[in-house]
Amino acid sequence: MPYLGVDYYPEHWPKEMMEEDIQGIKELGENIVRIGEFAWHLMEKKEGQFDFSFFDGVIQSLKNKGVDIMFGTPTATFPAWLASTYPSILSEDEYGHKRAFGGRRQYCFNSEIYRKYSARITEELVKHYSSENSIIAWQVDNEFGHEGSDLCYCSNCHNKFQIYLSKKYEDIDHLNESWGTIFWGQNYNDFSEIPIPTPTITTHNPSLKLDWARFRSASLNSFAHEMTSIVKKHKGAEQQVTTNVSGGFFNKWFDHAENVKPMDFVSYDNYPVWGGLEEPIPPAEIAMTLDFNRGLLDKNFWIVEELMGAQGHDVIGYLPRPNQAKMWSYQAFAHGCTDMLYFRWRGMTKGAEQFCFGVVDHDNQYGRKYKEVQSLFHEMKDYEEVLQAPIEAEIAVIYDYDNVWSWRSQQQSKDFEFKDELMRLYRPFYDLNTPIDVIPYDRELSAYKVVVVPVMQIIDEQLAEKLENFTKNGGTIVFSFRAGLKDKNNNIPFKEPLPGPVRILTGIHVQEVEALSAWRDLITAETAEVLFEYSDEFYSQYAAVTRNLFGNGKVYYIGGGLEDQAMNMIAKEITVQQEVSITETEECVEVYKRYTDQDEYSFIMNHSDQVKIFEGHSLQPYESKIIKH
Ligand code: GLA
Ligand code: ZN
Hints:
By secondary structure, the chain is an alpha/beta fold. The chain is built from 18 helices and 25 strands. Among the domains are: 52 residues, no CATH class; 183 residues, 3-Layer(aba) Sandwich (Rossmann fold); 40 residues, Golgi alpha-mannosidase II (Immunoglobulin-like, Sandwich). Helix 8 packs across helix 14. It is globular, with a radius of gyration of 26 Å. The site of zinc ion has 7 residues, from helix 6.
């Protein structure tokens, strides 16, 4: 049976409630809970005084009911005594303000003191429970880099950034040349003169901004990997290690695939809606986040925080309709989730998350949401074989964090949002109900039929060659605008007509560009054929969308913010030509096929508040089901 459970914080409640809570959790049909992730002070009330007796009792009570455990290492929320003794551990914002103790994750990844104390609590905790076989997995920290915690501008980070640069460039002239510091007379005589990108007049050097992003990623991942290696060194042989990935991963300053590399599996926190949103994010975008997490280790994943109740810190959001959160759970399982925990057993009455509602609300009644989770667990408990089955996508969407950070450091168009441009190309294929991998650009591509390359402005010769080979061998590529504009220093190559290293591959020449809210690459077709042209006067001589034959394959170039209808046509044409397996459904009905050695299944989700029909199956509003063929 898959692991199905809730996030449980027994330390939030009177001890005498624990047995009743665990019984209520058990009656949901659960076999696992996650505990511990924010309880550092409970384990080390004073420096060096470790006491795990509270959790010893919790674990014994859970074992008595046959409930296994995922234990979170507590480094996301350090004790007040640590911050008051060593204020240098507190991170700083770009204005030089130290972040106050009081929220969470306000630590500096480069603080040696923070690393020392984090390493010690992690080691003491994991050693204490290494032979506890009811603990089946460790979660390292909580949502690395979330809520703005991936950036710190303290003097320690500044100093470490300069060291990072000296190692990368070796001599200062090489850095000056690579960054083009001659511009605005910014030549450095020494690495110690180099700033971090705190507020200035106008803007910083683009190469500096990209190297700063790379340094932020290296800092966060170095901390994460140090803590992970401590867990792996001291954990029991059967205990696995993971970390929980938050949403908004393309708005973070760290490479997620690098972050989870030492983990046994990826865990994701799936929140289709959060405080302040009038409605959930679109079904296609939820799907993309799931595919992204499956792509991190190229394997199925866990969800350790699945939304059931409305969520928000100081602002509450949309309330999932009956069965809507359950339908999102079906969608997550369809896209490769193998094991799921709902966030959280009971909403807390005190502290910052009074409005992060759980399975049970403050009244402690087992109501609608309790029954919805119970029904999900009852329905899903017999599908372990399907859930564990690998997903074989024929389409891949590739991304590169250097490229994401390049766009974030100079968005060129005031409305530009990388995730939206990735979705412009992802959604039309999602709507055809075909599995899609969302993977880093340096993965092997030869097994795919279609590779989608959204707004990849940094394309080096190596990637260009890989894409050429993919196409020569019969693949189809879909580029969108600004492809090949920049090099790895975040600069524009001189005397290289666009789209740079993929000019032959795309069979076009981009003469000029305009970056309003609607983007325009003004294209002259060379070997490519023109599919769409711009309508208005000035642009009418240029192509907007082209298709080029290259080797045995085809290359589409979407030169602007093409609207959905046109994108749908292109996607459908490609899937037909490439014989990609698709399932046509009416709007808001998602179908995801999964296969075991013997059988074929369809996960069907109705994302709407209307009755829908699929192949004779009637789907009530937000209904979801699995059909075995
Ligand atoms: C995040 C965190 C949790 C909690 C929830 C609330 O996912 O991991 O600790 O803050 O959000 O929705
Ligand atoms: Zn710092």
